Amino acid sequence: MGSVILTNIVRFIVMVLLQVVLFKNIGYYNVATTYPYIFFIFLLPIGLPNLLLFFISFLTGLTIDAFYDSVGVHAAACVALALFRIFFHKITLEVELKESFNTPSLGIMGSKWFLSYVFLGTFIHHFFLFLIEAFTFSNFLYTAASSILSSIFTTCVILLISLLVYKRKSRISNI
Amino acid sequence: MRNLWLFLIRYNAIFWFILFFVFSIILVVRHNNFQRSSFISSSNVVIGSYYKQVNSWKSYLSLNETNAELAAENGLLRQQIQHLLQADTAADTVYMIDSIEQGRYAFIVANVANNSVHQKSNYLTLDKGAKDGIEKGMGVITSNGVVGIVLQTSEHFSSVQSLLHPDTRISVTLDSSEVIGSLVWGSSIDPRYGVVRDIPNHVEVLKGEKVYTSGFSLFPAGIQVGKIVETGLASGESFLDLKIELSTNFSNLHHVYVVKDLLVEEKERLETDSQDNG
Question: In this structure, are residues B49 and B129 in contact, taking their beta carbons and an 8 Å threshold?
């Protein structure tokens, strides 16, 4: 239990740092930008109480907002992602798994589940993010297009990261 | 009562969602309409000093370019000195800088601690703040163009709303004719280009013509902003839109100057007085 909390704290720090140091400077003009820090929210333990999940997501969003000078935008998008996460878990997971404190990672959940989880969640997050950032429905096509392109970009980055971590984990368990 | 309780527990996720989401939206709206909350922004001490540290490492990577830029600016200044000296010694030419304009602007040198070009609304953080005399609403320029407007200051840092922001408008004028337009980013995509709006239709505009600040906004008159690359983008019936190539390289900003208009209070007082009377 203690180690779960510690891992998540470390993961939070690493993902936020990576986001603001590295990924903030990567983008294809304004059409596709990447926000892989949401990987932290994807990987929170499955059995987390709803209130705590929302609170952590909100704080994560607010931290990123502080670096991006966009108070509330990322926070709102992260809260939307947390709601998606709850529904997705409710629909797809079995009861025993739902109450465990497992991390829903690529290694444990399998690639098919993980891919749809990450892609749909990323799309929800980015869609809300761009919509609230623009704060209008007038350029809706542009918003939709850039959220689809950005979610593909972010999903690729998240998959790369999880593949890197995945390899190391399995190697340790083999030893 | 029990049923209501069960209902709340069963759908607690949605209620928490609504609560947190509405709270975030309130933050966003407040942030847009009023002053930015100073606590959660990059002029905060923790985040500001973090950006400053990262930038002090990053600045080594572009020392060459920075040096070249500074040398070029030195050359330009030297040329201007030469010009002034010549004008001074030639007895028959009377050369005078307007004494009002001469003392009007002060320039504060600052380093860029953080910069972005990939967002829809871009901001910069400078490593100088209220302690060095920077105030809200001052203009920020670099040696070859306009950068943005100071949005907020803390003691040691200030955040700047970049020209690459949908709300930034700067009053500009053309080289050949004295018409006034306003410069906006417009495209929201490419940090190299901007759009000049509200140029009357009858004005003949040439490609490659230079665009300068008009002096009506926060910036001194005559700072080069960019070059026209495309004319005749129609925005409405009687106005032209011009696409210009910005002379500021936003992806590589290091040293900037904050323009302090020493007469701004007097100007604003006069303007509010005349508004009251009218």
Answer: no
ipTM above 0.90?
no
Check B118 against A134: CB less than 8 A apart: no
Residues of A in contact with B116 (CB under 8 A): 24-25, 68
Coil, helix or strand for B140?
strand
The answer to whether the CB of B244 falls within 8 A of the CB of B237 is no
Q: Kindly state whether A175 is in contact with chain B, defined as any CB-CB distance less than 8 angstroms.
A: no
Task: Say which amino acid occupies B15.
Answer: F
Q: Is residue A5 part of a domain?
A: no
CB-based contact (8 Å) between A61 and chain B?
A: yes
Residue carrying the six token digits 């209070």:
B265
Q: What local confidence, expressed as pLDDT, does residue A132 receive?
A: 86
> What's chain B's length in residues?
278
**CA B227 to CA B244: how far, in whole Å?**
5
Please tell me the distance from the alpha carbon of residue B267 to that of residue B101, in angstroms, as a whole number. Answer: 13
In a domain? residue A97 = yes
Q: Is B255 helix (H, G, I), strand (E, B) or coil?
A: strand
Domain count, chain A: 1
Rounded to a whole number of angstroms, the distance from the CA of A174 to the nearest CA of chain B is 39
Contacts of A120 (CB under 8 A, 6+ apart): A84, A88
Question: Could you list the residue range(s) of the whole structural domain that residue A117 is in?
Answer: 46-164
Question: Which tokens sit at A27?
Answer: 């983008």
- Distance (Å, whole) CA B114 – CA A21: 10
First to last CA, chain B: 63
Q: Which amino acid is at B273?
A: D
Render pLDDT for B129-167 as a digit per residue (tens, 0 to 9).
Answer: 888 888 888 889 888 888 898 988 888 888 888 888 888
List phi, psi (to 5°) of A61. Answer: -60, -40
Helix runs in chain B, H state only: 2-10, 12-33, 45-58, 63-89, 99-102, 264-277
